[in-house]
Every structure is written in C-alpha cells, then in structure tokens.
Request: fold
Amino acid sequence: MLDESEWADLAPFLSSMVAHVQDYREKTVAPLADALKLGYEQPALDKYFELTGFRESNVNALWHHRLSQHGPACPSCGKLLRTARATRCVECGYEAAVTR
Reply:
C-alpha cells in the first residue's frame, strides 16, 4: 500500500500511461487491446517497484494500492478493511457491533 507521498510520486506515471493510450487510440483508431501491447504501463510499474520493492505485473492493480482508499486494520486479523465505513472484514469475517 502506498501512503499519500508515495501515491503523489506514482500518480503522474499512471496519468501519463492513460494519456499515451488515449492519444495512440485517437491517432490510430486501434482497439484498446492493441494500445495495451505497446508497453505504456512499464514506467508506472517500474516506479511502483522503486517505491515498494515489489514487482507488480498488473498495472490496473496499482490504482487500488492507495492506503487512503481503505479503512483501518481489522481488530481480528489485521488486514485492512475495504472502506473507512466498513463494519465487516472480508478476509476473516469479523463483524463489528453497529450501534444506532
């Protein structure tokens, strides 16, 4: 997971990738699958590796590696809850008592 400082370093690479893919498709009228074969994702993947030491192969996964998009750690298993408002952990099933 990336904190906001790390995300600020990675986000321009992801934005650049999207811009390159869009530009290529507009100029060539190529399908998305063709544009994705050109390696525009590699700078973003390399930057993620530089920041984390983990070699991610799916560039789409990077969009979900922003810590601020997740909730706190589950009190039972320690995994991050999916959202800040989540009351149930999808990893272990722990469910917090909801008071109304």
